[in-house]
Design brief:
heterodimer, A: 340 residues, mainly alpha, 76% helix, globular, B: 327 residues, alpha/beta, Rossmann fold, 4-stranded parallel beta sheet, 10 helices, elongated
């Protein structure tokens, strides 16, 4: 045990642990590139990124909710409901109008969650579990349990076809969302307040931050991104299906947690979430290419999740966890000297 | 149809030369212009991996591929159309010689089908049908005619009940192409033949025995002995009803007329035991093998029919001894 402890106190190991998301991401990417021929080709890369866009957008919204120490399980149902609105209302409102209603549906779902959690003070797990079940049932009710299809199957191709040989529009939406989230969390006062509220709601309130507004806002934001994901997903498939997104909530939470956001709140970042989403995407692409059954993929995902959470605990218990890479480097060098 | 196929084969051959990732003996054109199957890359988006029907179908598909020296990349969408549409796009991105898709939604793959067609990749639908909108966007659809299965089931149940009575329908996943075909064909046939059979209720048990058991408990406690007949979209769900019936303390002898589909072993046994009216045999092995053979034919430039059904056999007490269960 002592020797194990010593290993974890080694600055080099600590550095690795501190940058665990990047390490895992690099490892999975190297694996992906070595197993999947042609992954480095731009077209394949662009397609792989396109696949992650839906999950990624949902994860962007969830990052903020998890930062607040809350959970949102309803994102999958919101995604499906937005998609149904986007496709089902095309005849009445035209494609653009219907897509806007789809986004609005997402916002309203977020408002519902915010109301349940902030006003009625229901635990977020229970509240969003309830809205998940309720919204899913609403999807089935509105569509009579049958998928609805749009009028022009080719309209949606614009969402997934790459723009001028680069990435698809929905990939851009995801990447821009990550950048905006990064700027919001890092450089704005509101973003800093989010961390404060997430770390300790009561003390944040005591220091003059309107905590409940931030929590409410987080749920609305999560609803909006889930709605946007639903709009894009339904356009891409020209289908609004009551069964879309049934597994997306848990996968997105996994991606956010792999990205270093803590369920307890107060810690997390936009770039971490990007890393988490890419890790899952790389695993899926690699294992699918090797025709590895899905349950093996889930074993790998589950193991990485556990490993990262354990590493996270080591990192937070260690006094060095607050150190940056640059401050660790000299100390590693100075410790190397006596051994030589 | 012919020229895009040729173009597809050419594009694929060109891509392989460029990336030099093809196997040995690729794309050997022989005298007729048809090419060898050896070394073809086929991308297969399957419905699921572990499932009573899908597993043997996938196994037969891969076995047939091995015999012909065809490389298969199998992706499983686990009955999730959202995953499936993404996987289809991944398949297209890999530029294989052919794609086989098991649609679990009648619509959602259409944009993907268009892209495959644009990329000149032949595509075969296995097992489940898609909407009319998809027609012309794929090379061929192999697999059972689920609508016809529904009609056959209606015939046999109508005969058994003498054209009248009250029945319940235990359907598969809502919105699934197979469910829509089997249930739609059944209802349409009853209406066309002017049957007085009344459908008390239709429930969706998702092709899952446990779910069928739970829903059947509710059906039995609600309608009880008023149920004269049961139509289940597959034999697995019919089994769920039988279990619920015996569980409720009722006698096997008083079992309503039951019609299922798939031709499973236990359905055969129940028919022999005399408390199961009929099942319709559809062989998963044949399903998987036919799809592989069709895509290989299409990828090597042969002309294939746009609809290749697998044979269906209605099995009742009269012929149960002569027929083989599908799985």
């Amino acid at each position: 045990m002592n020797s194990l402890k010593r290993v974890f106190e080694n600055p080099a190991v600590l550095t690795l642990i501190h940058y665990r998301v990047i390490v895992i991401l690099a490892a999975t990417l190297i694996l992906a590139v070595s197993f999947v021929p042609g992954l480095t080709e731009f077209r394949t890369l662009s397609l792989s990124l396109d696949r992650t866009a839906t999950l990624g957008l949902v994860a962007v919204g969830l990052t903020v909710v998890l930062l607040m120490g809350k959970l949102d399980l309803s994102v999958g149902s919101t995604l499906a409901l937005s998609g149904i609105a986007t496709i089902g209302l095309q005849a009445q409102l035209g494609p653009t109008g219907a897509a806007l209603v789809g986004l609005l549906v997402g916002v309203l779902a977020g408002v519902l969650n915010g109301f349940l959690v902030v006003v009625l003070q229901i635990n977020s797990l229970v509240a969003t579990l309830a809205s998940m079940i309720f919204l899913r049932a609403l999807c089935h009710f509105l569509t009579d349990s049958n998928p609805v299809s749009g009028e022009d199957p080719l309209f949606g191709l614009t969402v997934t076809r790459s723009l001028g040989g680069t990435f698809s529009p929905r990939t851009y939406v995801f990447l821009i969302a990550i950048v905006l989230l990064f700027v919001w969390l890092t450089y704005t006062v509101a973003g800093r307040h989010l961390y404060a509220v997430g770390s300790n709601e009561d003390s944040a309130t005591a220091s003059g931050i309107r905590s409940s507004r931030y929590v409410f806002g987080a749920f609305v934001f999560s609803g909006l991104t889930a709605g946007a994901a639903g709009v894009m997903q339904s356009l891409a498939t020209n289908t609004g299906s009551p069964v879309f997104g049934e597994t997306v909530a848990l996968t997105a939470i996994a991606a956010v947690v792999i990205g270093g956001t803590r369920l307890e709140g107060g810690r997390g970042s936009a770039l971490g979430t990007l890393g988490g989403v890419l890790v899952l995407a790389a695993i899926t692409t690699t294992l699918e290419y090797e025709s590895v059954p899905t349950y093996y993929q889930n074993i790998v995902t589950g193991s990485i999740l556990l490993l990262l959470i354990l590493l996270d605990r080591i990192a937070s218990n260690s006094p060095r966890s607050a150190l940056s890479l640059t401050s660790l480097l000299p100390s590693r060098n100075s410790e190397r000297v006596p051994t030589q | 149809m012919k020229s895009p196929l040729r173009l597809g084969a050419l594009t694929a051959a060109g891509a392989m030369l460029l990336t030099s990732c093809g196997g040995i003996g690729n794309e050997n054109a022989n005298a007729d212009g048809a090419e060898s199957a050896e070394g073809l890359d086929i991308c297969y988006v399957a419905a699921a991996e572990s499932h009573a029907y899908a597993s043997p179908a996938n196994a037969a598909f891969q076995e047939a591929a091995e015999e012909q020296g065809v490389n298969v990349t199998l992706l499983s969408q686990e009955f999730d159309a959202q995953t499936g549409t993404d996987q289809l796009r991944t398949c297209i991105g890999r530029n294989p010689d052919g794609i086989v898709l098991w649609p679990v939604d009648p619509q959602a793959y259409i944009p993907g089908l268009v892209e495959a067609q644009d990329a000149g990749i032949p595509l075969v639908l296995i097992n489940s049908p898609m909407d009319d909108d998809a027609e012309g966007l794929y090379t061929s659809f192999t697999g059972p005619d689920t609508y016809e299965q529904g009609r056959l089931a209606a015939d046999v149940l109508n005969d058994e009940l003498g054209g009248e009575g009250q029945i319940v329908i235990i359907a598969g996943q809502a919105g699934n192409g197979t469910t829509l075909g089997r249930t739609g064909g059944f209802n349409d046939a009853l209406e066309e033949m002017g049957s007085s059979i009344e459908v008390l209720q239709t429930v969706n048990a998702d092709f899952d025995q446990q779910r069928a058991l739970e829903l059947s408990r509710d059906l039995i406690s609600r309608y009880g002995d008023d149920i004269d007949g049961v139509y289940a979209n597959d034999d697995t769900m019919a089994r769920g009803f039988i279990d619920a019936w015996t569980e409720s303390g009722r006698d096997v002898e008083d079992m309503p007329a039951i019609v299922g589909i798939n031709g499973q072993q236990d359905a055969f046994e129940s028919i022999e035991a005399g408390y199961y009216t009929a099942t319709i045999v559809q062989s998963p092995e044949e399903d998987g093998r036919l799809a592989l053979e069709t895509i290989v034919a299409a990828a090597t430039g042969e002309e294939v029919d746009s609809r290749i059904p697998i044979p269906l056999t209605v099995v009742t007490e009269e012929n149960v001894a002569d027929e083989e269960p599908a799985f």
